[in-house]
Design brief:
Blueprint (H helix, E strand, L loop, with lengths): L12 E2 L2 E2 L15 H22 L10 H8 L12 E5 L2 H14 L3 E6 L6 H15 L3 E7 H6 L7 H7 L4 E6 L18 E4 L3 E5 L20 E5 L7 H14 L4 E3 L10 H20 L9 H4 L1 E2 L2 E6 L10 H11 L4 E5 L3 E2 L2 H13 L2 E7 L7 H15 L4 E5 L9 E4 L3 E5 L3 E2 H5 L4 E6 L1 H15 L2 E6 L2 E3 L11 H14 L7
Parallel strand pairs: 4-5, 5-6, 13-15, 14-19, 15-16
Antiparallel strand pairs: 1-2, 3-9, 3-11, 4-7, 6-10, 7-8, 8-9, 12-20, 13-17, 16-21, 17-18, 18-20, 21-22
Helix pairs in contact: 3-4, 4-6, 4-8, 6-8, 10-11, 12-15
């Protein structure tokens, strides 16, 4: 066939400009070369695969099964006689670090630390130093951390401090569900538990991660949170201790959990050797600066009498979970005689969760929630969702207090009437309900209930009272915080781009 006028055989021209095999398109712009286009296509496809694989399995939330409801009815939460365990609330960050160090320093046989996030900052190194000293004297140590923070913070892959621990003969460090982009359907299921067990006689469980925001008095930023210390005089006597040990064993033995750098040869490396020396020096320094942290404690005097402690837990796999903890907490609350008060850093609920809250409010005369105000919330997703759905939360009938004192509140606790108290890791959000492993202790103790109420009341003195969607009462002497332009801009961006994914936040 004869070539058209103005077109050269073997090449492509349009409007006198060469493109294709070429370098310019019809508008004279340079075209991307085929290898670059192919690479960009592959990367886009990979991104779509990861995002779709991570999101789609969790779009539909499981319902509560008949088996879960029947199992709940068989549980005992109220017991009239004193039990074998005692408990104390840990409300202060410094006390929370001190009691962890004390338990670790007094342990003789084994230590278990399970935490969502473990950093090598100041308080993190305090804990590392104590764990190393315990392992050096023959204590068996097991550490379990979640895979997402380890991947996100880029600490574990090459950090010599963690390698000091993982390479020790008496320490095993495992990662729950390590991040693997090739298996995106596992990415969202995380380990959110936080507890420390020492010698099967005492443990600390609550909402604190293992780094400076939650432990000690380091740096300018902190979060407020709660722990409970549980103690029994003889190993094996505590029912909740045995339940927690069984729970840990089930999680630890999952194929999801993988030992990290369990290689003694790492100890000979220069960076690891230096890190070990630094931790040994740090432990000596802690003993000199805080000698009272290392002396025996009269736990009988420090703790309160308890009738019973029940451990609530979510399923431990990494897929979409049946909302066991949320169901059991709200079912307990529905059966209160007159009052329920609960604290949560943020509240992100679907329709079923709001319905459950409405049922609690319909069954109990006085139901009050304290959460961060949008301006005070350290979680931008939580702040965004609260602004958007506060009116729907109010429609359930719950009273709302907004903590607004300038420090983000991270506490997860509740009291039911004058006997039951709950402390643990569960946030009132869809992630805690459907995605993460979660633990809550429900404690039957009049004295502990009084202690927790007193601590909760101190925070509630620094709150705004939400009357309705348009009215918030500010106590005398307080000035309500206002979100600055950067926060409002971020809120708008998140609402536009991430509002659809609230079940993952």
């Amino acid at each position: 066939m004869r070539a058209e006028a103005g077109m050269k055989t073997g090449s492509r021209y349009e409007n006198g400009k060469k493109y294709g095999n070429g370098e310019r398109d019809r508008n004279g712009r340079k075209r991307m070369k085929k290898p670059a286009r192919l690479l960009l296509t592959v990367l886009a496809a990979a991104l779509c695969y990861i995002v779709a694989g991570a999101v789609l399995p969790f779009v539909r939330q499981p319902e509560v099964s008949t088996e879960t409801k029947e199992r709940f009815e068989k549980k005992e939460f109220y017991v009239e006689a004193p039990g074998t365990e005692r408990a104390a609330v840990l409300s202060d960050n410094v006390d929370a670090l001190a009691e962890r160090i004390r338990l670790i320093s007094r342990a003789q046989e084994r230590i278990i630390l399970s935490t969502f996030e473990f950093r090598n900052d100041e308080s993190g190194k305090d804990i590392m130093a104590a764990l190393l000293a315990a392992a050096d004297r023959g204590v068996q140590v097991q550490i379990l951390v979640d895979g997402m923070p380890a991947f996100k913070n880029l600490q574990l892959p090459s950090d010599p401090y963690f390698q000091v621990l993982s390479s020790h003969a008496n320490i095993e460090l495992a990662i729950y569900n390590p991040v693997n982009p090739l298996e995106p359907w596992k990415l969202m299921g995380r380990l959110h538990d936080k507890y420390l067990i020492a010698d099967d006689t005492a443990y600390i469980l609550g909402g604190r991660n293992t780094y400076d925001f939650f432990l000690g008095d380091y740096g300018n930023y902190k979060n407020y949170d709660w722990d409970v210390l549980v103690y029994s005089e003889e190993p094996g006597q505590g029912e909740s201790m045995n339940a927690l040990l069984d729970y840990f064993t089930q999680v630890w033995e999952l194929p999801l959990c993988r030992l990290w750098k369990d290689d003694p040869a790492l100890q000979s490396g220069k960076r690891v050797t230096q890190a070990r020396e630094a931790l040994e020096e740090r432990y000596l320094s802690l003993q000199e600066r805080f000698p009272d942290w290392f002396v025996p404690c009269d736990y009988m005097e420090m703790t309160r009498e308890v009738s019973h402690i029940e451990l609530l837990s979510n399923p431990i796999h990494c897929y979409a979970k049946e909302p066991v903890v949320y169901y059991e907490m709200t079912e307990l609350m529905k059966r209160a005689e007159g009052e329920v008060r609960f604290h949560t850093p943020y509240i992100i609920c679907n329709g079923w969760m709001l319905q459950r809250l409405a049922e609690v409010c319909g069954s109990v005369d006085d139901v009050m929630m304290m959460t961060n105000s949008a301006a005070n919330n350290g979680n931008p997703f939580g702040a965004m969702d609260y602004r958007k759905y506060r009116s729907e939360i109010l429609e359930t009938g719950v009273g709302i207090l907004e903590y607004d004192d300038g420090v983000s509140y991270h506490g997860k606790c509740f009291v039911i009437d004058d006997r039951l108290s709950g402390i643990g890791s569960f946030n009132w959000d869809m992630r805690s309900a459907y995605l993460d492993t979660e633990l809550m202790l429900v404690i039957d103790s009049v004295q502990l209930n009084e202690d927790l109420r007193a601590g909760m009341a101190e925070y509630e003195e620094k709150t705004l009272t939400v009357v309705d969607e348009d009215t918030v009462l500010v106590p005398e002497g307080m000035t309500a915080q206002k979100s600055g332009f950067p926060d409002r801009l971020l809120n708008g961006i998140l609402s536009f781009f991430a509002g659809w994914a609230r079940f993952l936040m």
